[in-house]
Write a structure and sequence with these properties.
By secondary structure, this protein is an all-alpha fold. It is built from 8 helices and no strands.
């Protein structure tokens, strides 16, 4: 675990990211929900939709500094991995750590949003734990789908366009609270999310393996 965390931090090319993604990031977004819920709107679906959209936007932009373009044919992000036989095993751990960190961040933020909304001024909340959980998984799925595209290119404009499109889709998650969520859709989204994560990881490792021969 220690090696995975250390390796992951190597990919954080900006030093401020090493602390910003762990503390200010969740606190700011949970605080945003608190302000929205208490002072600007009592519509819970707007609060949930806004925070889901912001998570997607932040995660995609953070990846700009972490793994953007790592599966591109023209990337130089893999060069230093070739200097050691531990290069590919380290990359596997970094990718796993990246996925775990992101899921935990999304979970903390949306669980915090759920708690904030649950203590709203009206004393009621329409958000159930099942609805909160499926929002967590769908948000993670949207981000992972974005990475299947953005990690193939080194153009930051592709990231920005992806943020623009997926932010709107993520915002629609707020309307989930209007429906009763059963176990089946949660399981289906979890399986789909796991499949997308596995596909993205396989793509990057395939590119990394090919780069050894290219070199």
């Amino acid at each position: 675990m220690k090696e995975a965390v250390k390796g992951y931090h190597i990919f954080l090319s900006k030093s401020w990211l090493k602390w910003a993604i762990y503390i200010p990031y969740p606190i700011v977004l949970i605080g945003m929900v608190y302000i929205l819920n208490r002072y600007l709107t009592f519509f819970q679906y707007i609060c949930i939709g806004m925070v889901c959209g912001m998570i997607v936007a932040v995660e995609i932009m953070v990846d700009t500094y972490v793994l953007m373009g790592i599966a591109s044919k023209n990337t130089n992000r893999l060069e230093y991995l070739k200097t050691s036989t531990k290069g590919l095993p380290l990359l596997k751990k970094v990718l796993a750590m990246d996925a775990v960190r992101r899921f935990l961040s999304i979970t903390v933020i949306l669980a915090g949003a759920y708690l904030v909304i649950g203590t709203d001024p009206t004393g009621t909340s329409n958000v159930t734990p099942a609805q909160c959980f499926i929002c967590i998984v769908i948000t993670d799925l949207l981000v992972e789908l974005a990475f299947l595209l953005t990690r193939l290119f080194l153009n930051v404009w592709i990231n920005l366009l992806t943020v623009y499109i997926l932010w709107g889709i993520a915002f629609l998650e707020g309307f989930i609270i209007l429906y009763k969520i059963s176990l089946l859709p949660i399981l289906l989204v979890m399986v789909l999310c796991a499949g997308v994560i596995a596909a993205g990881r396989t793509l990057i490792l395939k590119r990394a393996g090919e780069s050894y021969y290219d070199g």
